[in-house]
Amino acid sequence: MVDVWLPYGKTDVCVRVPARNLLGTIEPKDRPGAPDQKAEVERALKEPIASKRLSEIAKPESKVAIVVDDATRSTPSERMLIPVLAELNAAGVKDENVTVIFGCGTHRAVKPEEATQLLGAEVSNRIKAINHNATAQDLVYIGTTKTHGNKVHVNRIFAEADVKVLLGDVQYHYYAGFGGGRKSVLPAISGVETIRHNHALLLNANSTAGNLENNPVHIDMTEAARLAKVDFILNVVENKKGEIVKAFAGELEAAFLEATKLVDEMYRVTVDRRADIIVVSAGGYPWDLTLYQALKGMDASLDAVKRGGVIILVAECFEGHGNQVFYDWMSRLGEIKNMERELKRNFIIGGQRAYYLLKALLNHQIILVSSMPDFYATSIFKLKTARAVNDALNDAFKITGSASRVWAMPQGSNTLPVYKAPEENKA
């Protein structure tokens, strides 16, 4: 037997896999954080990619808008903002002419105590911060995307600023390809109809994690960000400890694309065979706080398991399912055709999670190991359940056979396994 430890909530659980069955573990190539986090951000700002320095772009009289991530992301905004403000101050920009906008998209507003936590006490005391409201009446129309005909409405304060800056982190996103860069405009500070139009493009086969090529969601987001006339971005790539490994600053697309290369180096893992069974942890807290969040780990594992195989998802789900739209769509729509129709006609955030789950269930059986009541897991979300991970593994062997091969994936939310046949690897 081989013991593999998997994060579960704020602790770990052990799955015991017979040595003859275990293919191995799929884990990211983690890198150490920069020794001096602030100095790494300052380095990036001094060496911008395909752009002038921010201190050269801004003028003393400039009104500056800076978009940062909301409370649903772990982006180190405080570590990024202080060096950015120093750049602006060096150009003569006064603090009172800078506004930080929380890019909430269609998420709830950031609470005052969360704002202080996200920005830090120093920035909170110096700079005005506001929440973006996707349903506000005074959004500004800035144009229509050419490729997909999306009418882009954005936050007025951002649209009317003299200097527009985006801050964010870059990691895999399950239909935009990657988070970061252009995503800080759409969806972060866009109107709800603009967001719906964009997100409905996830039905396209190219709208997958780690893919930007011919990805309509990404293409539409990029066109929207161009229309917004973004002046400068600062993006970071973090390790699983939340430390900044490297910062990337400069032009909207060039800096973002450089960051995606590092994400691929760290988190994309090639596998030369698909397993009959994959045991995947969402990565523990906070990634498995809800089923809605934890299913990102399940999505990431799909290319490493055979069609008809079993996925064992290890996720505490301490706060339950996590999204009412997700719950409603799973209980009301039932079939994937109904969901596709609804996504095209009336896209609502949360519906896409139901669609991706049902899509996975077409080709795989999924066993959930969690603290969720069985009723919800089985009746609403159509999952099999087990109280313990080793019970789930025994159940999986009964489905796929005692000779089944097994992958274990401890950091599902932060890993992207990509299958390549052995002959492809040799080429």
Set down the secondary structure blueprint.
Layout: E1 2-8, E2 11-17, E3 22-25, H1 37-46, H2 54-57, E4 64-69, H3 77-90, E5 98-103, H4 112-119, H5 121-126, E6 128-131, E7 140-144, E8 151-154, H6 156-160, E9 163-169, E10 172-173, E11 177-178, H7 192-199, H8 216-227, E12 232-238, E13 244-250, H9 252-267, E14 268-271, E15 275-281, H10 291-301, E16 305-314, H11 324-332, H12 336-345, H13 351-363, E17 365-369, H14 374-380, E18 384-386, H15 389-400, E19 406-409, E20 416-419, H16 422-426
Structural account:
- The protein is of the alpha/beta class and 427 residues long.
- The protein has 2 domains: 2-27 and 269-426, 2-enoyl-CoA Hydratase, Chain A, domain 1 (Alpha-Beta Complex); 37-238, LarA, N-terminal domain (Rossmann fold, 3-Layer(aba) Sandwich), CATH 3.40.50.11440.
- 35% of the residues lie in helices and 25% in strands.
- It contains 16 helices and 20 strands.
- It has helices at residues 37-46, 54-57, 77-90, 112-119, 121-126, 156-160, 192-199, 216-227, 252-267, 291-301, 324-332, 336-345, 351-363, 374-380, 389-400, 422-426, and strands at 2-8, 11-17, 22-25, 64-69, 98-103, 128-131, 140-144, 151-154, 163-169, 172-173, 177-178, 232-238, 244-250, 268-271, 275-281, 305-314, 365-369, 384-386, 406-409, 416-419.
- A 6-stranded parallel beta sheet has the order 3-19-15-16-17-18, sandwiched between helices.
- Strand 15, helix 10 (291-301) and strand 16 (305-314) form a beta-alpha-beta unit.
- Helix 1 crosses helix 3 (77-90) and helix 12 packs antiparallel against helix 13.
